[in-house]
Fold this sequence. Notes:
Blueprint: H1 2-16, H2 31-37, H3 44-52, H4 55-58, H5 63-68, H6 73-81, H7 90-98, H8 101-115, H9 121-135
Helix pairs in contact: 1-3, 2-3, 2-8, 3-6, 3-8, 8-9
Amino acid sequence: MSINLVELAEKVAREAHQGQYRRGGVVPYIEHPKAVVSRVGNDVDAQVVAWLHDVIEDCEMTAEDLLDKGFSEIQVNAVELLSKTRETVYTEYLEAISQSPLATKVKIADMISNLADIPTKKQIKKYAKALLRLSKEL
């Protein structure tokens, strides 16, 4: 059952991010969640959340959609925590994430993936501070 949820999460992410590209417009966006998944280890919940971590924020998908597809409340809650809105202050966003070990694990993997993808100086500073903040929760 667990492996099927990871496969389902990948399928949902691939469909949701279809036609999206990373910065520069060359690399398909799905390569980012794939990289995040590769950094969370064998933790099934973290793999599911890693595949889905941007589908609410960047696609036309809701938490209810994810629940309807069979993902657990714990998984969907983590995806919601990782979904930053423009109105959310970044420090408050990190504070909310830090309350969930699952969301924290995936966010750290997400930031490491972003840092491995030709970050700007501004992104390096932002993620360095955020990694220090979230690593205190581990």
